[in-house]
Prior knowledge:
Blueprint: H1 2-12, H2 19-26, H3 30-43, E1 47-50, E2 54-57, H4 66-70, E3 82-88, H5 91-100, E4 108-114, E5 132-139, H6 150-167, E6 172-174, E7 178-181, E8 184-195, E9 200-210, H7 229-233, H8 254-259, H9 265-287, H10 291-301, E10 308-313, E11 316-325, E12 331-335, E13 340-343
Parallel strand pairs: 3-4
Antiparallel strand pairs: 1-2, 4-5, 5-9, 6-7, 7-8, 8-9, 10-11, 11-12, 12-13
Bound molecules: adenosine-5'-triphosphate (ATP) and biotin (BTN).
Amino acid sequence: MRYGILKLLKEAGSDYITGVDIGTRFGISRSAVWKHIIELRNEGYDIESSPNKGYRLLPGGELLNPFEIMDGLGTKIAGTEVVYFDEIASTNTHAAKLAADGCAEGTAVVAGTQTHGRGRLGRSWESPKGKGIYLSIILRPPMAPAETPVFTLAAAVAAVRAIYDVTGLRTGIKWPNDIIYEGKKISGILLEMNSEAEMVNWLILGIGVNYSQTESDFPEEIRDRAVSILSASGEGTPWKDAPHGQGSAPGEDLHHVLRGGHDGRAGRLALIRALLRRIDDIYQDILNGKNAGILDEWRKHSVTLGREVRFTLKNTEYTGTAADIIENGSLLVDCSDGVRRELHSGEISIRGIFGYSD
Ligand code: ATP
Ligand code: BTN
């Protein structure tokens, strides 16, 4: 109910709506309307009340909550349900519990911070409060486990598109699905699956985006390898001219949006919505058998293909040139010993493509 009132206030823009009008609309008394207004204010919304004119919502107060994330989102599956936590151990871990309890496909879990954010290969993911995006989406693709590796590549393509939609930043993909800006990691993806032999029960697509960290916010070990959206964007970037296509964030002045609200909350909200839209689009593509197009787009954004890479397999270190990816998500590497090797994502980390020695 209170979000119904909020919606009404949003639609009214800078106009006032009287308590009587709101009450009539929802069939409640003026004092009940007042109680809801108090609740919304307690949540953090800035609502002005004037004895003669009624109520109006003051701009710039977007919050990260399920209502704001879902309102007018227009997706078929991703984000049709959203749960939000100020703090949680890991959105992926929680999403797996919801999936096991039979939640609807497309349910998204969003958090303000994670105490045990998880990365690929058993690593942890730094998830400082209010400075990143921590998002997990539950999908139930009607397919066999062997058909799912394309999701690894698709999730990265969706993230690149969403970041571009909202910020105009052109990011690249490091195999299999790290999102890179000028050699540093801006976003990471953790895909987890639960399945029977022949059928997927659910997939959890987890995305972490560094949003507003400054260099000193990152732990020293990753300081030279991590970057945030805001620090990548820099001051003076011509946001107004930034192209933004379908699925883009609202707001004519993107610079204002990105830095808007407490801790860039408006920008995080816009990016979460763009991620949900882009994941929704690409999920439809997968369901419609358009995997080849996804692989092509992955190749286009890749910062790995054509580069020298290093990796360790069974205690032996190899070097070679990353030649291509194939539909099962594997990277083909032409190794210096003349052998072409197929590296499976989820098992291996490649090195040596960044602009620093590692
Ligand atoms: P990967 O094997 O996942 O492709 P990597 O081994 O190349 O990555 P580096 O980029 O060299 O990793 O180092 C960064 C490490 O820090 C990665 O393991 C990355 O997942 C981890 N990390 C943890 N939190 C963050 C964060 N918020 N932003 C960027 N990196 C993070
Ligand atoms: C990686 O690059 O290693 C993957 C990082 C994935 C981090 C995200 S944050 C939201 C979701 N919940 C988690 O615990 N991990 C993913």
